[in-house]
Design the sequence.
């Protein structure tokens, strides 16, 4: 296992800008500062959220200039995969083409893994978690069909380009005051994730295991991982109190990381574990906590 950090969260948290809002010089300076800091902490694996292929190409130029090994880079699509079940067919098609372009750029630069999100659906229930994506999405049955169709398209393209897609599990609920709000995402538990992978049936579509999201389900992180371990190619880690997806430091929340990482070690996971948080004042503590668990469980 290797520890990594979601570098793009630092752009937003520390510098107040998303990756796609940064010009080349600004992106170079911020990325250089962040990666130099992480290297001093012994971190050599980096994940980046990208909104489109143009942003990705600019990022790759920066990382190449900083001499970052492509095997240490992972990409996270945040804007396109969630649109795969939109009502507007032109937007769906544009999302597919943008994902193909991202896959092509990743493949051309020997980057192996792209994390994607399942799309949203228009729910039949009223207590759903608000999102502008929900209002633009198809109703459940039609959204499901479009999701599978479009995931087949991008998985087939990823397979041709030797790229692995990690479909990230979503939270099932969040709690607002005393009100439980249900997510209108697909892929909210192991059953839904495994169903999607079965229907798409492509070796390039695997699982990105988000521990924080799994804590916002009935089965909890260890329950999700026990059913999906053989398919997991990337892990995101942060903490919460079982109410919201807060992306808290590992020391703040209720997740039993000892139990989770014991299971991960028992299942023989060898991939990356990405701290999905900004490089804030807690990042050194997060790294130390993660190293402690990985050392005790795996001899990391």
Sequence:
């Amino acid at each position: 296992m290797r520890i990594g950090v979601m570098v793009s969260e630092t752009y937003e948290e520390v510098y107040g800008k998303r990756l796609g809002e940064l010009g080349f010089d600004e992106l170079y300076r911020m990325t250089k500062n962040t990666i130099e800091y992480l290297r001093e902490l012994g971190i050599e694996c980096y994940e980046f959220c990208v909104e489109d292929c143009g942003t990705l190409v600019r990022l790759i130029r920066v990382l190449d200039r900083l001499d970052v090994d492509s095997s240490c880079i992972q990409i996270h699509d945040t804007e396109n995969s969630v649109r795969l079940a939109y009502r507007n067919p032109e937007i769906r098609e544009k999302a597919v083409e943008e994902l193909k372009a991202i896959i092509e750029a990743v493949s051309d630069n020997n980057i192996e893994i792209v994390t994607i999100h399942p799309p949203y659906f228009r729910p039949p229930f009223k207590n759903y978690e608000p999102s502008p994506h929900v209002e633009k999405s198809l109703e459940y049955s039609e959204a499901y069909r479009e999701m599978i169709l479009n995931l087949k398209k991008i998985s087939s393209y990823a397979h041709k380009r030797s790229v692995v897609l990690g479909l990230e599990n979503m939270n099932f609920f969040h709690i607002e005051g005393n009100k439980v709000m249900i997510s209108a995402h697909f892929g909210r538990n192991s059953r839904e994730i495994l169903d999607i992978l079965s229907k798409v049936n492509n070796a390039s579509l695997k699982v990105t295991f988000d521990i924080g999201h799994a804590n916002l389900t009935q089965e909890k992180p260890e329950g999700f991982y026990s059913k999906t371990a053989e398919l997991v190619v990337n892990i995101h880690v942060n903490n919460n109190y079982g109410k919201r997806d807060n992306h808290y430091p590992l020391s703040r929340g209720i997740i039993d990381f000892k139990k989770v990482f014991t299971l991960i070690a028992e299942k023989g996971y060898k991939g990356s574990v990405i701290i999905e948080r900004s490089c804030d004042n807690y990042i050194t503590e997060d790294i130390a906590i993660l190293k402690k668990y990985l050392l005790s469980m795996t001899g990391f």
About this structure: Residues 82-298 form a domain with the TIM Barrel fold (CATH 3.20.20.150). The beta strands are 2-6, 45-50, 73-77, 113-116, 164-168, 173-176, 179-182, 205-210, 232-237, 272-275.
